[in-house]
Amino acid sequence: MEEASDKPGSGYGSQKGKLDPQLYILSFSKLFKDLGTGMLAFLIPLYIVDLNTSFFADTPVVVKAGIVATVFGLSNALSQPFMGRLSDRLDRRKIFIVAGMVGFTILSFIYARTTEFEYVVLFRFIQGITVGATVPAIVATVTYLSTSQTRGRAIGIYSSLRGFGFGTGSILGGIIVNYYDFSSAFYVCALLGLISTFLITFFVRDARDPSVKKSNVTISSANGIQFRILALAMFMMMVGIMIIFAFLPEYRVRLDASELSLSIAVSAYVISRVLFQTPMGVISDSMGRKSMVALGLLINVPIVVGLGYVDSIIQLIILRAFQGIAMAAVETPVMALAVELTGGSAVGSRVSTITASQAAGMALGPLIGGVLAGYVSFRTPFYICGILILLSFVLVLAVIQEPESSSD
Q1: What pTM, to 2 d.p., does this model score?
Q2: Which residue among 56, 104, 340, 359 has its CA within the 20 to 30 Å range from the CA of 353?
Q3: What is the pLDDT of residues 164-196, one digit of tens each?
Q4: Domain segments of the chain: what residues?
Q5: Which CATH fold topology does 22-210+219-399 show?
């Protein structure tokens, strides 16, 4: 593979204003695994309801659903910084992506044969580590396949295809469970993971850091603070989005909803996010990223509170669709801002701060929601989450500075 001659941050193997075709190959290859990821996120909170358990017999089902989601998210979040540093040190990304795909495939197959709640918790913890191996490597690869002027578009395109897989995966999982059973759905997840593993192994080339010899560049204290604010914003957005997974069993009862209708509600968020992700990325490239991040945060506040008041599946679907638009306005510009703050050096280890916070939000959202709903009241977690997202909005306005336009 040819070495990139661009300066740091200018985009590996890409021309100014254009995207490397490898970006599309990577995104399509990973699409199948993303379908499986969406299936698992929807299936597991429902699957655990009827599983045997030795230690959690008296635990409310919303808390159990939160535990399963949390162990996955925490192991994912904790492993990402380590995996990001390791991939930067080795200057290898593909091996981490493939290893994560293999782990996903094997564990998806194992779920179909698991009948104990405690084992599901253990396997989700391990699966979180395998995902943590892939995320920093993929973010770094997307970065090296783009330039400063196209980074928002590149991240938007990748995130759109990833989101499409995740969203339609929930619907696919609902259809399979509705007409067959959970075991069949898990076997399909394993097959999808196997397809992605094959495609990435044979069709995606490894990405090398064009600034690897200068990777000892340090980030200023001002940039460090901005990293932490962006990480907080991503954390709170994901908490507000993921708490719904702890409430799936409760929504099924309250709204008299079927697994298929709940899967549509889960997917409504991802589908709208997919539709708006790339446009938001393009707009952020030309008009600035800070204001768009702030707007997305502000819009999500009433949406999250509203999730505690829905009394029909239609209302839930509509709110989740608007939540997808809000997330599209935050995720793409946040990641583009984070990449610019790194200066293009050691992207995997540094941007993993943001992706790890995103994973932590995925982890703690369902647990926070489940515990507060199970032991305080159903609507309490929605109010608390809304207040914290509003705080993130204020901090973004006060602290984040729009980076100077780069002339890659």
Answers
A1: 0.68
A2: 104
A3: 887 788 888 888 988 888 999 999 999 999 999
A4: 22-210+219-399
A5: Growth Hormone; Chain: A; (1.20.1250)
